């Protein structure tokens, strides 16, 4: 299309890795045969989006200028309000293009901001528990890094799905105590030496005390959990512990001794883009939004005009999920 005939739109624009997006104009995307043009109503800022925009996430694509955002809430051409994921162009814009098969109609009980905020942490939890760990009601779950947005959702979802025990970890002592109100049955502080952490985890995970670990941190605390699991196998076989790795806020690598895996029932699984199929992602999201239609999953949000994206990008929002409104 000739430049003079292009429709323009406002969007957040990433010009290079490591620099916060600016608010500017870019050509409005055009849908291909299987795509639909969506009027974006809300798009959440997540660690995944930050990682992609900074070039530190494995799914980053160095094509500039780029519109950040990989999900959101918007209106279809017929007015249907949907959650969408995996748009062909970023979601932090007035308009985006997405494969119509990656849209999910939303219940009226969820407002735009809440629905957008639930998407990423919801997938991180539902996809990990059901899609990767194959969680069954009655099993016990340990959530490593439970004071963040995704971890807080994980507590509520594990409770909703029938977990018999929910152990939550974190560094913020006050925030940890508040997690009991969301459904945590026990909490473990991550403050202390590596040896102290391992000693705290040992009585929790050994002897079949935990069946599923949701790890949002990796790094030292993840190693402490895995170390606590090691050395307790038997000829009967140690009960399975499905360790699902979801985030790496505390580090991308760790020195894991091989004998920990050989001497325990630990199975390490990844959950993220690439380890979950598109079908599994959509199924997890549909399940989550169906549950959210009748069950209130607590999530703190802060709505911000997209025009303020540069300042908001690096602001400290605590445990609130920042949601941009185009």
UniProtKB/TrEMBL annotation:
Write down the superkingdom of origin.
Bacteria
Listed GO molecular functions? oxidoreductase activity
- Ranges for domain Enoyl reductase (ER) come to 12-299
By its UniProt entry, which SUPFAM superfamilies does this protein fall under? GroES-like, NAD(P)-binding Rossmann-fold domains
Concerning Pfam families, the annotation shows: ADH_zinc_N
Could you list the residue ranges forming a coiled coil in this record? none
Name by which UniProt lists this protein:
Zn-dependent oxidoreductase, NADPH:quinone reductase
Phylogenetic classification of the source organism: Bacteria, Pseudomonadati, Acidobacteriota, Terriglobia, Terriglobales
């Amino acid at each position: 299309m000739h430049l003079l005939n292009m429709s323009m739109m406002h969007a957040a624009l990433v010009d290079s890795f490591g620099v916060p997006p600016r608010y500017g104009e870019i050509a409005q995307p055009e849908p291909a045969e299987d795509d639909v043009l969506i009027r974006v109503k809300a798009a959440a800022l997540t660690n995944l989006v930050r990682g992609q925009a900074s070039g530190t996430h494995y799914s980053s694509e160095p094509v500039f200028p780029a519109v950040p955002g990989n999900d959101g809430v918007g209106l279809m051409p017929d007015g249907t309000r949907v959650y969408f994921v995996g748009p062909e162009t970023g979601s932090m814009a007035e308009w985006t293009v997405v494969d119509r098969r990656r849209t999910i109609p939303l219940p009226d009980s969820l407002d735009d901001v809440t629905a957008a905020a639930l998407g990423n942490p919801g997938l991180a939890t539902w996809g990990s528990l059901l899609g990767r760990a194959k969680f069954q009601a009655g099993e016990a779950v340990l959530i490593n890094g439970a004071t963040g947005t995704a971890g807080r959702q994980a507590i509520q979802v594990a409770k909703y799905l029938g977990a018999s025990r929910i152990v939550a970890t974190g560094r913020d002592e006050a925030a940890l105590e508040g997690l009991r109100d969301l459904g945590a049955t026990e909490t473990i502080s991550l403050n202390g030496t590596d040896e102290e952490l391992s000693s705290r985890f040992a009585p929790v995970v050994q002897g079949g005390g935990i069946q599923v670990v949701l790890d949002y941190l990796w790094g030292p605390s993840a190693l402490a959990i895995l170390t606590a699991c090691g050395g307790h196998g038997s000829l009967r076989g140690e009960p399975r512990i499905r360790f699902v790795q979801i985030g790496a806020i505390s580090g991308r690598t760790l020195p894991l001794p091989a004998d920990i895996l050989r001497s325990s029932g630990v199975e390490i699984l990844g959950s993220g883009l690439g380890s979950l199929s598109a079908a599994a992602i959509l199924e997890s999201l549909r399940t989550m939004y169906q549950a959210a239609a009748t069950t209130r999953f607590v999530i703190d949000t802060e709505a911000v005009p997209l025009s303020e994206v540069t300042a908001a990008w690096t602001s400290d929002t605590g445990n609130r999920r920042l949601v941009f409104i185009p």
